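Board notes (copied after class):
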Amino acid sequence: SFATAVSAPAAQRGRSFSIRRAMAQKIANVTAANAKEWATNWGDDALEKCKHWLVLEAMCYVVPKADPKQTAKDKLGIYAAGDIVPGDGAVINNIQWLKVQYEGREAFILIDGKAVGVNRKFLEPVPG
């Protein structure tokens, strides 16, 4: 079952986290170090159908546009490994993104790390 509390280290790191971030659903014991244990080989079907996504990276930026050139300066917020993020998968300019609502506005989280030179997915679809 999902724990709704953010771990103390995550809360201490993010002084500016919004209430929405602090209330994120979370799966305990998911870390960037053990992300490979959670990753599966999913396809376009999951991208279209899944509405909840598991963060596998230590930090995933929520950004205002579906543009992989955005940096930490552009971020609207952050999700951490183990967080469950609701959203819709989309392919924009041949790059997989999760389209989310963040603090009342449309925003994006990069799914496919290849867009930034990393050969892994940053998010994993949660069946259901």
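Comment from the instructor: Strands lie at 25-26, 52-55, 59-62, 77-80, 83-86, 88-92, 95-102, 105-110, 123-125. The two ends are 13 Å apart (CA to CA).
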